[in-house]
Design goal:
By secondary structure, the protein is of the alpha+beta class. The chain has ten helices and twelve strands. A five-stranded antiparallel β-sheet has the order 2-1-5-4-3, sandwiched between helices. The chain has a five-stranded mixed β-sheet with strand order 7-9-10-12-11.
Length: about 450
């Protein structure tokens, strides 16, 4: 390079600083806009070559296992890096500028690359690519040395004190950028984990809801047999009455007593019986139709209607059912599910009364308000629940009736309906004469 006078040297030095300032500015812009580490390194190397007019710029990261400095990004005379081995250890491949910088956690300036003893292993390839000086600046992540940015110039004695100051600032900015990217990645990872956890939780909750609904449906199907028995009991008397009415028509006719008024009366009686039977079908059909939305309903009316569905069965089995519901209570929930829960409890009491052959079997149901809550009590005189199973009677599939006697779902589903679907509480204790179930809503 031809010798320059003082003014020319000052101008050249100012130009070099101006280019380095432009590079530093581009690096800071890249830190702000770049979303990932690899893109940041590529942008930094490109800025160093395009704006700083360095022959070559590359970013190397230390491989924790091999302790070699791997090339992460590069720009310019990249052929220099083909097959190159640079180590962070104290060995011949780690004694060059980059190796010293990363090993000592600082920077290293080599202003006579071809004349320095420490760069001897790379003299031949440096000469081939026109490299005369270099600067390596350490990069840190979380305060720990992870690699270096190395810049090469085609001029000997290129880097002076001001260059070094700007390069150290660039290294600090890049390290800050790496910390930002890591924190952003960790935050995004945490957010994804929270999102995945929320999705998994919702899936688990939905699966639990589906399972509970399946159990409710299964319980409803299990109760259908009992309901069919009730329909049979409800229909038996009107069917008998309807048969008698029809037979009377023939009897009147055979005795010559058949007239218009008798026909009209017989038809009227028959239609009353048919309407009663039709209403029975509607009542039972409504019970098996699930509610889609929570609605307000009168607890007293719901209990009375539920007992009407079971009345014929209790009459046939000589079980007295007493209802004390002087107060009305508005509930918010699913009327048919509430009725199903109540039926499960009442049928459980009926089964115990029959199994124990209780003389004068009786079920007492009461409704009262306690503050803002409605309380329904269902008590029997079957002698109570043995203490050893008291804590298990609400468990799914737990039954004392044997394989042919029940599914063990009724009381479990009653608790699910009352507590999870209607936000209430279902409990049981032994009263003076038998079990006492308490519903609070």
């Amino acid at each position: 390079m031809p010798s320059l006078d003082g003014g020319q040297m000052t101008a050249l030095r100012g130009l070099r600083l101006s280019r380095l300032y432009a590079t530093l500015s581009a690096v800071n812009q890249a830190i702000v806009r770049t979303a990932d580490r690899d893109s940041l390194f590529r942008d930094v190397c490109r800025a160093a070559v395009d704006l700083g007019e360095f022959l070559l710029a590359w970013v190397g990261f230390i491989d924790p296992e091999t302790e070699l400095v791997d090339v992460m990004a590069s720009c310019g005379e990249t052929g220099y890096l083909d097959g190159i081995r640079i180590s962070a250890r104290q060995d011949p491949e780690g004694l060059g500028p980059t190796g010293i910088a990363v090993r000592e956690g600082t920077y290293y300036i080599c202003n006579d690359f071809l004349g320095s003893e420490i760069t001897r292993p790379w003299h031949e390839r440096a000469r081939a690519h026109g490299i005369r000086s270099s600067a390596s600046i350490v990069l840190r992540l979380g305060g720990e040395t992870v690699g270096a940015l190395t810049l090469y110039s085609g001029e000997k004695d290129f880097f002076d004190a001001e260059h070094v100051s700007l390069l150290r600032e660039m290294g600090a900015d890049l390290s800050f950028g790496l910390d930002l990217l890591r924190d952003r990645e960790l935050r995004q990872k945490a957010e994804r984990a929270l999102c995945d956890e929320a999705i998994a939780h919702e899936k688990t909750a939905q699966a639990l809801r589906d399972k509970e609904q399946a159990l409710i449906d299964q319980s409803r199907q299990a109760a259908m047999g009992a309901m069919i028995d009730n329909i049979a009991h409800q229909w038996r008397q009107p069917l008998n009455s309807l048969g008698i009415t029809i037979q009377k028509l023939l009897l009147y006719h055979d005795h010559g007593d058949f007239d218009q008024s008798q026909l009209r009366q017989s038809v009227g009686n028959s239609m009353d019986l048919i309407r009663h039977m039709s209403q029975t079908i509607d009542d039972f059909r409504d019970f098996f139709r699930p509610n889609k939305e929570r609605t307000e309903f009168d607890a007293r009316e719901s209990i009375a209607k539920t007992l009407s569905l079971l009345a014929a069965t209790f009459e046939a089995q000589h079980i007295e059912v007493a209802l004390e519901a002087g107060e009305s209570a508005e509930l918010l929930g699913y009327p048919n599910e509430f009725a199903q829960a109540l039926i499960n409890i009442i049928i459980n009491a009926k089964d115990e009364l029959l199994a124990r052959k209780v003389i004068e079997p009786r079920i007492e149901i009461s409704l009262r308000n306690e503050g803002a809550k409605a309380v329904i009590l269902v008590a029997d005189n079957a002698g109570g629940i043995p203490e050893e199973i008291m804590g298990r009677i609400f468990d799914p599939y737990f039954t004392t009736k044997g394989a042919q006697g029940g599914t063990g779902l009724g009381l479990s589903m009653s608790r699910t309906i009352i507590e999870k679907n209607m936000g209430g509480r279902l409990s049981v204790r032994n009263g003076p004469r038998g079990a006492e179930f308490r519903i609070e809503i």
